[in-house]
Amino acid sequence: MRRLSLLVGVFVVxxxxxFPLLPDMRTPADRAHAMDAKCAHESEQQAVPALxxxxxxxxxxxxxxxxxxxxxxxxxxxARLHLRPSLNVSAEALQRxxxxxxxxxxxxxxxxxxxxxxxxxxxxxxxxxxxxxxGLVAAVLVDHFEDARRVLDRARTFxxxxx
Length: 163
What we know:
By secondary structure, this protein is an alpha+beta fold. The chain is built from five helices and four strands, in the order H-H-H-E-E-H-E-E-H.
């Protein structure tokens, strides 16, 4: 029994404390604080151009498939915002800018814009920005259906506020 406990302890330490069978119990504030080192050289002023609704061309639901018995089920995960290529930044730089914005808002160091699609009060969003040929796509994802629906609604409202 002692040997098994030692083996489990070594396994947990080797995995950095992450155990895939247990849910992630970190709060949004914990996740925001984990971004402190990455966001040390980012300012909210740098995020302003990325947070304008005129940058959004279209919004569509973001789905994922999960195993369900002998089949796969489709689940709503959030929104995919198709962005105009007017920022002249890489997908990685824009992703960091949006993640740092979310962290600052979560920690109360910045304020969210109306229906900010990159922040959801009480939840942490996974933001993944990629290239879509002539523009960028920001996937804003969350695990719970109700939160995913709120993210999609906020993104649609945000995009409709184009000047």
